[in-house]
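[job 4471] stage=fold_predict status=RUNNING
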Amino acid sequence: MLMDTNPGSVVNLEVSDGNKFQYLFIAFAASIHGFSYCWPVISIDATHLKGKYIGVLFTAVCHDANQQIFPLAFGVGDSENDASWTWFLGRVKSVFGVNPTLVIVSDRHRSINNAVQEVFPQAFHGICMYHLLNNLKTKFRNKMKEFEQHYIRTAKTYNLQDFHVLFYTLCSAVPGVKEYLEAVGLDRWTRSHAPSWRYNIMTTNISESLNAMLVKVRELPITAFVNEIRLLCQKWFHERRTKVICADQYTFDIVDGDRNYCVHMALWTCTCWKFQLDQLPCDHVLAVVRKTPYQAYDLCSLYYTREFWHEIYRGVISPIPHISSWSIPQQISDFDLQPPDV
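[job 4471] inference complete, writing structure tokens
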């Protein structure tokens, strides 16, 4: 049904012997189209499901032009292992292709590293600087706590000259950290050494933010879970497609797809004409309501209100007693009513 209502979407279901659920992959057609216009940097992550059958949720996301989370694909598997990550990333590759400057950002999970090397050998695989920082804190303990911000500046700096100064200071203060970070690969955690553009995606925060939004949803059965993901993506695409630009206190320019509409809140008008003709907020007025203190209920004609609805049905139509109890006036009973001519 999802593919019927969203033509061009990709849904792959894989089962094991006995037709038992094994893997699920979903990519909406809108996401497939939109990725062509996003930075070619994909953040991947996995998080545990909490329903009856456990499992993990795999996500692939990127940033849109406004640096908002743009969902690309979702997957479900048994656990984070080489087979499941390879299966999920293989579907991502088949759907979204391979950009020559593609960058994949993740934590340092061994199965992710193995899967990326197998499926995307030509892509640059960067790691989340915060996950690496946590590894450093575990290994070097109290020393790294003191130099946490220094490490972050080292990772984020743009030019090699600043990097060398910062890196030298860090390595001098924390014995052993130089060898550790060089073994990880300077190109994998620093902006200045990366062979491909990471833009501003130095972490997997966008993946983790999406996982946090789905924390309640992850308790649902798989079909309800998938539907909640669809609803979230549907909501994001609609809200972001409809952009509100404030011209003055009452006038708003609404960008809806490839068309512009002008809403004037004081005059109760929209250039789509639905607002003034139906006397009910149109989609463009509702877009203004979401961004301003206006209340949608106040923008409806009184004829749509609960108060008017109650007044409409305030009157009572009483029942009629049985004909045997009727008291018919004499002039009515004497009147001989004939049928019309046929």
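[job 4471] summary: The radius of gyration is 31 Å.
[job 4471] exit 0
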